[in-house]
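Hey, can you fold this?
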Amino acid sequence: MTAFINILLSFAMMFGGLCSQLDYVIRPARYNAQTLTVGELPTPVEAPETDAYIQLSEVNMHYRIYGTGKPPLLLIHGNGGSVKSLQEAAAYLANDFTVYLPESRCHGSSSDPGEISYQLMAKDLKEFIEAMGLEKPVIMGHSDGGINAITLAAEYPDLPGAIIACGANSHPRTFKPYFPLGVAIKNLFHKDKLNDMMLTLPDFTPEYLSRITCPAYIVSGQFDIMWNSDTVYLAGNIPGSDMTILRGETHSSYMSQNGEKAYTLAHAWLMAKGLL
């Protein structure tokens, strides 16, 4: 019976998702559709100031820092990523912030304690923020990093100054079908706990999302891996949040694949919110 209900929910999600993709074309204002145009940019810094490790309660975390002497901003990479994933965005954002790029547990050169979940990664980030003595940092994450930003803000509402969650999904059911199918096939040949996490987590309920109290910006691309309706769901259940679905963008085209666009996106919203 449970399996049958899950199948029905999946079909309902797919139908709603297809409708939202069409609706985006017909009523773009409903999704705050915008085209991300790169204008005049500051000169990116050439290299990180710091490349080091810090021992947390469960993880020896590798991190880099770009820039100095400015308010803190954490850039959180996605599933399978590393400090290199968002380094171009960090180099630009270092003009406005001291940018911290931590590597999540089980990723890059950070240690692997054997377990991974979004709650565990949020706990690691909390410990990292506290160990570094950061006050009200902006948290900007891509993909799983966006999910981490949402989880951190829900689990520890007083910690972040603001979050920018790019390409985050609320549940594996909200992926367009091709994506989890590809992950599941890959898992058949090389089982990986990172793949397992994408196929089973997160599960953001309205009650959970309502715990977020800091300014929040929920962002996705028009051709992202999750349905547009899921971005609307996330933004609609985070009190006072802002949202945009970017015209012509994919899951990574404006983040890990283009640091200039990532900077432009963050800078414009943070300026509008009075956070710069």
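Oh, and this one too while you're at it.
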Amino acid sequence: MAGIASNAVELPRYISRHAHRPRSEAKRSRIVDIAMQYFAEHGYHAARVGDMAATLGIAKGSIFQHFGSKDGLFFEVYKRAVRSFPKYLDALADVRAAGFFDVLYYWLVRTEHLLHEDWIPYRISLLGNYGTDLVLKREINRFLIAEDPYGTVAFVRFGLERGELRKDMDVEMIVSILDWTMERFQDALLTAELDPGLFRRQGEMPEKKEARIRQFLAVLRRAVGVASATPAPGRSEPRRIAVANLIAKPNVP
């Protein structure tokens, strides 16, 4: 496949080792803008580089000159998409003050906003996670580990500093558990067809989703949380309801 390295050690040719000139960078940015729309609307395999070039009014070869291959173009699109998502610690200040698991709750309740407000980058992230071949997926995983675009490492350290997370577990293990479980759970909340074994019934009431979010957090708390930090029954209810009401309002950043 053009633009893909067969050697697992070497970087694929589409990963640039050189800085781009300002004019070249502007052109690359325009190409990525159009590519995001095409990939989001048509999927990875059905999106045609020739159609993107025609929309841009440039030669198809010009896109390959900048990105090496269709894989290289999608890799840049994917990086832009996930970089556009907020980090865990971008939650509101009063939510952060409430603690690690309140921050998780805040983002889980906001999950549907990904679909309504940021459907293009969310669609791109799904394609990168589920709709690419193993070689490209490997490079995506390398990027996620190296850049940590969601700020998971800083967030876990935040939880450790507050005494809410177990200190007898390896930090990287907690980070990995959080990345794996949050990604799959949020995807299942939005698109149950990706994981029908988790949520089998469609069209459920919001109360059911709320209950599942609480159940998920309870499981996660038992896995990585400190037992002494578990709130007493009912203590966190008013706080969590207040957060849910707050994030349901329009114009919340």
